[in-house]
Amino acid sequence: MTTPISPPPRKNPQKRTRVPVEPPDTRSRAALGLSVAAARGRFMLQVCTECSAILYPPRDACSSCLSVDLEWQVVSNRGRLVAETVIRTSTHIYFRERTPWRVGTVQLDCGPSMICHVHGDCESQGNVRMINRLDKSGHGVLFALPEKEIPAMEDDPQLRELTCSPKFRRILITDARSESGQALARAFSRADAALVFAGEAERWRHWPERDSLKEIDNVELVPLDVSDTQSVEELCGEIGGKVDILVNNARFVRPGGVMDGGDLVFAQQEMEVNCLGLMRLAQAFGPVMRGRGADGVNSATAWVNILSIYAYCNLPQFGVYSASSAAAHSLSQCLRSEMRTGGVRVMNVYTSPTEDEWHQPLPPPKVTASKLASAVVEGLQDGLEEVYVGDLAKDLIDRWSAEPKLLEQEMTRQGGGRE
Amino acid sequence: MRRPAGFRTAYDGVVLAAPVTVPYQRFSKESAHHWIARALRGSLAAARISPAELDGFSVASFTLFPDTAVGLTQHLGLTPRWLDHIPTGGASGITALRRAARAVQAGDADVVACVAGDTNHVDSFRRLLSSFSRFAQDASWPYGSGGPNTSFGLLTDHYMHAFGATREDFGRLCVSQRSNALRNPHAIMKEPLTMAQYLSARLISDPIALYDCVMPVAGAEAFLVLRETDAVAQGLPFACIRSTIERHNAFAADPVQMRGGWAVDVDELYGMAQADPTDVDLVQTYDDYPVITMMQIEDLGFCKKGEAPAFVRQRNLTIDGDFPHNTSGGQLSAGQAGAAGGYLGLVEAIRQVTGMAGPTQVAAARLALVSGFGMINYDRGVCSGAVIISGGSS
Question: Which residues from A are below 8 Å from B127, CB to CB?
Fold first, then answer.
């Protein structure tokens, strides 16, 4: 049985902080398909479109019929652990600091066998469930879980390397004043976060929910305005070394397009908060988090951006807001590359329009703040890199994956193609 | 596509001679080129052939980069009309022999020098592992980076579950090979090994423990393939090739490797040699880990599948025993010099059947079986081969 992790003791500043090291990060182009699937938490393998053979390891031609027409598909993840070993001596620095390390060979019910990481609760020769998750180098790796849920199984040290669980970690949420900010604070508190720093801009301005937020266990309101560089730097100076997960939740949302929006004032503020806000936070908190990517049970582990699904394709009614989200989406890819050497994951949560005053003109279905918050927490617990919240977001990304230009046709007609 | 018996041309008129082992070293500051040159020089000197006269050259090495056999011709001053670079690792000796023998037999070359050698810098083993093959890079190296210790940890775990083998069974192989190695002055391991020491050794990748693992070293091995008439004219002791087999990626559907390509071709091996397993006087298996020796003992017909643990319990595997096996100590005790590990057994067997093995000489060694196994491309060794040789007389 997994030994549940304990809250880490106060850090001893005289002791060495474990330095982040990436696990092996070289992959063939074909193998990147596994990383793509892992980013969304999917267990996918290559399937030959001609003879239907399920193939592993990733390759460029079918080893049954030599067809080069292979497609990544979701396949059954059930199998049996047919061989196992515990690595006590590794040639790689990442694993050397983490031995003993359990790996095994799993034969899938659907055919192929695969070398994988093995959860401590899997029984020798027993049935397992496979998952595909990103490791600290940002590549998909296969991991065998016990067939059934077991208490505290998420605390398995090898599994925790692949997830960004908030348990015993310290969270910074920007814009506590927003409905999503409050819901996030509550969700993280429920998910055993050690401490939730809730960033509050313009403290002098009263807001009715403040008192109830303050009363939640482990929530601490801190001054933070992401449109003010000095504010961000001051907060980082105080708590930067204690932020294990940063949730970039602040969003400035106004309706309006390019020609028909009036002036540039809202556009500037949307860029200021949604795009440059991300940069201000990254320039202050990013380097500290990246340096703490391997710092024990409560290492820095994830950076979360809450973005609009319209980052993928412009919704003219919220044309500039869509553009600011697209800019933030693009910046997040750069940030992901910069964070990777520290093993800190950048998780983007693309939401459907949320149930709030500024999205009022849009028809349902919309996403409530609490649904958005639980999607964030679950995404971290699952170790994802991309999360789509709400039916509309899921539908839109499906359409975008099929043909972005066709989606543009649909979106730029009246009503965003939803007539 | 099964061929009738006798379909294959016998290796008449072509022989193996001038076996050379350059004594191994744990670490070397020298390059693979250095080690290969020394082995080549030794073989050519034994046959009194000058480098300029050599017209066939076959090379196996992991650490020659950025060179291949091509670069070595200029580096070493060779002008061969037949050139080969063998990528089959632990099967490279068998592969080289098969190709070279046919070239000499057909007259494409008069003499082929077959050489395998590698250096071992302090960090070269780790570097080799991290880029060993595409499947390894994508699908095994990221899982703990344990290298072959981990691959064989999995194979051994599976074999023990499937056939009830115990650690003592594997220990028997290691202990008897160490006792052979004590008679080989060039073996890297020079201390006796007891079963108690074997069993109490620290674990490396369960159930693999320290004495199940080979020691990576620098070293080189070589032999010549030439016409029998030329060997006789030079007064060279030689070995005749009775039969060979080679197979790659056999039994790909086995979820974990429990047999190798030998099992596909074993009947042809003995059929071509017109011999039975009981006729064999000594056996050299590829022994980077004891579990793969167990599989070879089974797949090469000395016992049934799963019965090798019982076989090694019943037989004496030392030089003076009733089943002389890995007489130089094998890689487990002599060291693994990269691709030269695929030559170690073959070069020792040529010495044995020509009566040149000195302190490790098996009495009445007439017929020897040598087996090769190579390249953990992903989860298993892909290349396999075997050869039966006998002593010739000049």
Answer: none
pLDDT (mean) for B324-330: 98
* Residue B348 CB-density burial (10 A; 0-12 exposed, 13-18 middle, 19+ buried): buried
At B285 the three-state DSSP class reads: coil
Contact flag A101-B144 (C-beta cutoff 8 Å): yes
Residue in B130, B134, B145 nearest the CB of A28: B134
Q: Give ipTM to 2 decimals.
A: 0.94
Kindly state the average pLDDT of the residues A61-69: 97
* Residues A315-348: tens digit of each pLDDT: 999 999 999 999 999 999 999 999 999 999 999 9
Distance CA B348, CA A406 (A): 70
Give per-residue pLDDT as tens, B9-21: 999 999 999 999 9
Confirm or reject contact between A104 and chain B (CB < 8 A): yes
Amino acid, res. A107? Q
Q: Which of A24, A88, A125 minimises the CB distance to B161? A: A125
For the CA atoms of B144, B146, B148, B154, the dihedral, rounded to the nearest 10 degrees, stands at -60
Q: Which residue has the higher pLDDT, B343 or A11?
A: B343
Provide the residue range defining the domain that includes A354: 170-417
Q: Look at residue B6 and tell me whether its pLDDT is greater than 70.
A: no
Using pLDDT thresholds of 50, 70 and 90, give the confidence band for residue A417. very low
Mean pLDDT value across residues B218-247: 97
Q: Distance between CA atoms of A76 and A80, rounded to whole angstroms? A: 12
Chain A window 33-92: which residues touch B at a Cβ cutoff of 8 Å? 56-58, 63, 82-92
pLDDT score for B394:
44
A 10 A CB-CB count for A53 gives 16
Same-domain pairing of A185 and A302: yes
Is B138's CB within 8 Å of A28's CB? Answer: yes
Contact assignment for B157 to A114 by CB distance below 8 Å: no
Name every chain B residue with its beta carbon within 8 A of the beta carbon of A113.
255-256, 379
- Same structural domain for residues A184 and A44? no
Same domain, A359 and A237: yes
Residues B116 and B38: their CA atoms lie apart, in Å, by 11
Residue B255: strand, helix, or coil: coil
Residues from chain A contacting residue B134 (CB–CB below 8 Å):
28
| pLDDT for the residue A419 | 40
Asked whether B143 and A83 are in contact (CB, 8 A), the reply is no
B250-267: per-residue pLDDT in tens?
999 999 999 999 999 999
Question: Which one, of A312, A358, A299, lies nearest residue A180 by Cα?
Answer: A358
Render pLDDT for A83-116 as a digit per residue (tens, 0 to 9). 999 999 999 999 999 999 999 999 999 999 999 9
How far is it, in rounded angstroms, from Cα A28 to Cα A33?
Answer: 9
Q: Which residue has the tokens 């060495």?
A: A16
Three-state SS at A380: helix
Return the structure tokens found at A252.
């400035």
Do both A278 and A340 map to the same domain?
yes
Query: Looking at the predicted structure, is the pLDDT value of residue B80 above 70?
Result: yes
Cβ contacts of B132 on chain A, cutoff 8 Å: none
| Half-sphere exposure at residue B207, Cβ-oriented, CA atoms within 13 angstroms | 19
- Structural domains in chain B, CATH included, are 14-122+218-234 (3.40.47.10), 124-214+238-391 (3.40.47.10)
